[in-house]
Amino acid sequence: MRRFFLIFIPYIWLLALFLVPFLIVFKISLSDIALAIPPYVPVIEWSDGWAGFKNFLSQLDLENFVWLTQDDLYWKAYLSSLKIAAVSTVLTLMVGYPIAYSMAQAPNEWRPTLMMLVILPFWTSFLIRVYSWMGILGKEGFLNQFLLWTGMISEPLQIMNTPTAVYIGIVYTYLPFMILPIYSALEKLDASLLEAAEDLGCSRLSAFWLVTIPLSKNGIIAGSFLVFIPALGEFVIPSLLGGSGTLMIGKVLWEEFFSNRDWPVASAVAVVLLLLLIIPIILFQKNEQKSREMDQ
Amino acid sequence: MTQTVFAPWEDPGEKPLIQFKNVTKRFGSFTAIDNLTQDIYEREFFALLGPSGCGKTTMMRMLAGFEEVTEGQILLAGQDMARVPPNERAVNMMFQSYALFPHLSVWENIAFGLKRKKMPKSELDARVDEMLRLTRLERFARRKPHQISGGQRQRVALARSLARAPKLLLLDEPLGALDKKLRQDTQFELMDIQEKTGTTFVIVTHDQEESMTVASRVAVMDEGQIIQVATPDKIYEEPASLYVADFIGDVNIIEGIATKSGEDGYKINWSEGKEPFQAKTPRTLSEGQKAYIAIRPEKIAVSQDKPDSALNSIKGKIVDIAYLGNMSTYHVEIPGGLTIKAQTANTRRLSRRSFTWEDEVWLSWTLTAGSVLER
């Protein structure tokens, strides 16, 4: 009985806060836009009973999903989001791996401090941190002023409102999600394995490729998903740093919802985005399951 | 039929494979190895024996190339190893934790070192198969290290370190993680493999029984220095010092004052007013010098009556009996408060044992049973 409750509580949580909202969004995506409150039709007429419900069902259609395939704005936005998410995941990995590696190499007494420093940015509001990047990357920003002062450039660089600014923003924001799983994989790595590899004829570098990288593979995969999934639907960073030039599906969704007040199309965009995200999540879980089976 | 005894260390013409020349190793202010000079010969099974922290592991890690020598030289086949990194030494090591690669199968683990040699595929396959056969692991080639038992993992580690056919194989507490029964079987297997491959083995261990079983020579270490190097029987029968006598096996130590008696014998006056014990020794002691007799428990006979012929005999009372199955150790208190351990083989069943607690018995031993030591 106790076990039943322990399982039951998280399921209730998922049901109430994930499945039910999703079904509502899905229902709206099958509706039509209307000048009303709420701004879509049909709504269920509870007073008409069963007939009202049947009437409601008959008015639902897949029109909005068809619309998404007709206007090339949407698939371009999805594609561009996938590209930005993929590129920034790779960039985050390239920045995060060396950091995680040096943390794992650091003396034991230093590790909690380093860990703290990685988590520290979370103590400040995410929005404030993205805004402050505007101050750094802008035409009159700190970065340009510094580069002009050193004489490396003679004209200020246009970084703000370009994809570069979006990449910088995403890499900065999601870096801890990449570092932590890789660090936890590297920390468990037995140093004698590297000595064994060297003893068996590896140089330091090939020992790294043949032993360290394969043994931190699970950390790399976990970190990549933790960056890729939120980056794909990211809205704040591209709209604050990317300007009008950067097309991302999160931004399109926001505009459909708030500017156009087209809730049905916005819902359809959200449903497709969710499906796009579920695929990598399923892949991720498969990988987790495989590594768990391997450990048995 | 005469059989030549394997003893290259007694042949002055033999060139040693490894030479430690005045090697000192310091970690900060701590001296791990203190001005150590030692030769190890080809095909030897050389054991470094000592308590933890005595420097035996440091010596091994310097041979493997994981630690640099602070002063002095280590030569391998006449070549100075100072600037040679671990991956370029004809030395392989079997790690205490085995350090098997968890992401690779048994087969891939063994092939790991061979692949680094850029060996042709067919030759590599043949060599891995040979190693699998040698260590009886053929059936487990496709398994991952976590899917096999501790004893099998130990054999994979051995096969992996032997695969590159090193001139020298280092074994760091190779049997430490195995239970006693398996350890004994594996000791003989190690000796067998060492003989078959003709590789020089250097083994680090804190288990004196293990080193005695496997090694051709044992080096007893303490505080960064080698106290004595000799064959296992010499170490046991003729320890050079009290430290060695005490570290290897069980021993009774009797302290006294030496006086010359006869050609090469001494009387050791161990207690005022008691008959001194007599012992023969090749050592020369000065008159009235402090000396010790170290006698192994199994060399002391226990009897009901005073033996007629024995030169050393003393009466005592049994205070404790340790029954070990195949033998029993009697703790006998002799006048003067000293407790002497004497061991007898249990050739009879327990119920017919002749002595029990509180019995008065005679202990006796011969002139050459004990070693006379100065320190």
Describe the structure.
The complex is a heterodimer of chains A (296) and B (375). Chain A has 296 residues and is mainly α. Chain A is built from 14 helices and two strands. Chain A has one domain (68-294): MetI-like (MetI-like fold, Orthogonal Bundle). Chain A has helices spanning 2-29, 50-58, 63-70, 72-105, 111-119, 126-137, 142-150, 163-187, 191-199, 204-215, 217-232, 236-242, 249-259, 263-294; strands at 32-33, 40-41. In chain A, helix 4 (72-105) packs across helix 8 and helix 11 (217-232) packs antiparallel against helix 14 (263-294). The two termini of chain A are 29 Å apart. The model of chain A has no long low-confidence stretch (mean pLDDT 89). Chain B is of the alpha+beta class and 375 residues long. Chain B has eight helices and 20 strands. In chain B, strands 6-7-8-3-9-10 form a six-stranded mixed sheet, sandwiched between helices. A five-stranded antiparallel sheet of chain B has the order 13-12-11-14-20, with no helix packed on it. In chain B, strands 15-19-16-17-18 form a five-stranded antiparallel sheet, with no helix packed on it. In chain B, strand 17 and strand 18 form a beta hairpin.
How do the helices and strands line up, and which of them pair or pack?
The complex is a heterodimer of chains A (about 300) and B (about 375).
Chain A: H1 2-29, E1 32-33, E2 40-41, H2 50-58, H3 63-70, H4 72-105, H5 111-119, H6 126-137, H7 142-150, H8 163-187, H9 191-199, H10 204-215, H11 217-232, H12 236-242, H13 249-259, H14 263-294
Antiparallel strand pairs in A: 1-2
Chain B: E1 18-27, E2 30-40, E3 45-49, H1 56-64, E4 71-76, E5 79-80, E6 91-94, H2 106-115, H3 121-134, H4 150-163, E7 168-172, H5 180-197, E8 200-205, H6 208-214, E9 217-222, E10 225-230, H7 232-237, H8 242-247, E11 252-261, E12 265-269, E13 277-280, E14 290-295, E15 301-303, E16 312-323, E17 327-333, E18 339-345, E19 360-365, E20 371-373
Parallel strand pairs in B: 3-8, 3-9, 6-7, 7-8
Antiparallel strand pairs in B: 1-2, 1-4, 4-5, 9-10, 11-12, 11-14, 12-13, 14-20, 15-19, 16-17, 16-19, 17-18
Helix pairs in contact in B: 2-3, 2-4, 3-4
